Amino acid sequence: MTVAPNGIYAAKPWLGRLSEAQRAPADPPPSVVHAFREAVARAPRHTALAYFDGRLSYAETDALSDSVAGHLAARGLGPGDRVAIMLQNTPHFVLALLGAWKAGATVVPVNPMYKTGEVRHVLHDAEVTALICSDRAWESYLRDTAADSPVRIVLTACELDLQTRGDTRVLGFERLQRAADADADADDLLTVARAGAQPPTGREPAADGIALISYTSGTSGTPKGAMNLHGNITYNAERQRGGHGIAEGATYFGLAPLFHITGMVCQLSACFANAGTLALAYRFEAGVVLDAFLEHRPAYTVGPSTAFMALAAHPDVTRDHFSSFEVISSGGAPLPPALVEKFRAAFGPYIRNGYGLTECTAPCASVPPEHEVPVDPASGTLSVGVPGPDTVVRIVDEQGADVPFGEHGEIAVTGPQVVPGYWRRAEATQATFPQGELRTGDIGFMDADGWLYVVDRKKDMINASGFKVWPREVEDVLYGHPAVREAAVVGVPDSYRGESVKAYVSLRPGASADPDELGAYCKERLAAYKYPREVEILPELPKTTSGKILRRELRSQP
């Protein structure tokens, strides 16, 4: 099988000729800090960060993060040291991120939903020197968690700061009353940022420097730290900026968490590359997000399909909430075709699919702006787009050989966005990145036109009486039922079949359906070995903070 120079399997000529907007950036900046400083030079007074009623210009954000960098360096943080940032989508996250990078450090983004054991694993595994977190988390459990870790510098932040009016009703909590001796073990991030310290010199990040140690979600075991280089990030950020064709200075809305690679690259980094405004609203809550859409009028956002399901189901949602958007992208969770069409019919925008992983620094395949993706007629699976420029995507068998068009195999990726490996995990790196090629663990196929389809995770395949059942195919059918909001399918032990198919669903607000009805709906549309023998209705399905439904937790239910 031949591969075109731009990384797309040789197929129809139009797909091999990407538009100028989709081509690889000629010379991406070496780091996000460099791109940010270029934006400061172009538009110093333009709003860089919008947070409820608060605004910070590029010049202000630059000065505040300079001071954070100076403070960290004065406390002994050296080049290459690790700084863990455990914050929601607030300006504090951005000031901490830029400050750490300006100090020459590597950032370890940490999910604020992590509990003691999960945080302890990250702090020890990454040998974290500095921790930046919310004051509430520090006071409630992180002080004890960090006590026996390598952490020796702590900065805390109050999420109510930088909102201008300090509307505590928005976030649902009151300002923490710090104890008299609270400053003994932690400094206040905003106080540090306003101190006017100068950043250290000679620590400008290089393209081959480790920008992030991004821990995988743990859906398939103990989280491992993917080493995202500065060059990995800026390459994909420039691809996002150029590929979407959004005007410089436009507003990007932070729907995806910034601690997740999608939010880090497709929102924050792409926004700074475009000298845009990044609008933030703490964390996802459908009503707050919809209000923010009306206030900030964003041109772009990206999020998991589950977030768009929640927004579409909100009782106050209207078409006007989405009228400002030029591009809406989905990533991090499967995008059902039924959702795309229902969303467009109700609100206007076409949700553009994409595919990527932490290990390839967010997207490696996306939808060219002038096209809509096809749906595979055999399975009903929505394509995730075409591989990006300079990116080779192969579909391989167990021996790593190419399989023909249309056949299922493991998706393997090579390109400028692929990380060099996992932090201090030589064996895992060798297994996942043989000869530098990322073996994703995802099963997919590519059609004769070059469109890529993701079928499912390799480990999630169900073996029912010797027949392969991919959960995604059953889930996509369930999403076609008007009452279904979320769906997840797993294999459960079956004394006769070995495994049988079980579906978990949550329903749309105000909708009703019983398990028998949903089972019969699938039976009419799927082969006999594929339809779920059991359907269980839950109020909510378990998800990661990035919106990925956790089939692992459903499989472990009694």
Describe the structure using short key phrases.
disordered N terminus; seven-stranded mixed sheet; Luciferase, domain 3; alpha/beta; 23% strand; GMP Synthetase, Chain A, domain 3; 558 residues; ANL_N_sf; five-stranded parallel sheet; 17 helices; globular
- What's the Cα radius of gyration? 23 Å
Q: Tally of extended strands?
A: 26
Mean of all residue-level pLDDT scores: 88
Which quaternary structure do these chains form? single chain
Query: What is the straight-line distance between the termini?
Result: 46 Å
Structural class based on helices, strands and sheet pairing: alpha/beta
- List unreliable stretches of 5+ residues: 1-21
Helical amount among residues, as a percent range? Answer: 25-40%
Largest sheet, spatial ordering of strands: 2-1-11-10-12-13-14
User: Do you know the CATH topology of the domain at 361-459?
Assistant: Luciferase, domain 3
Total count of helical runs of at least 4 residues? 17
Protein described:
- The chain is of the alpha/beta class and 558 residues long.
- Among the domains are: 361-459, Luciferase, domain 3, CATH 2.30.38; 460-555, GMP Synthetase, Chain A, domain 3.
- 29% of the residues lie in helices and 23% in strands.
- The chain contains 17 helices and 26 strands.
- The strands form seven sheets. It has a seven-stranded mixed beta sheet, sandwiched between helices.
- Strand 20 and strand 21 (452-457) form a beta hairpin.
- It is globular.
- This is AMP-binding protein.
- InterPro entries: AMP-bd_C, AMP-bd_C_sf, AMP-binding_CS, AMP-dep_synth/lig_dom, ANL_N_sf, ATP-dep_AMP-bd_enzyme.
- Residues 473-548 form the AMP-binding enzyme C-terminal domain.
- Residues 36-423 form the AMP-dependent synthetase/ligase domain.
- It holds the Pfam family AMP-binding_C.
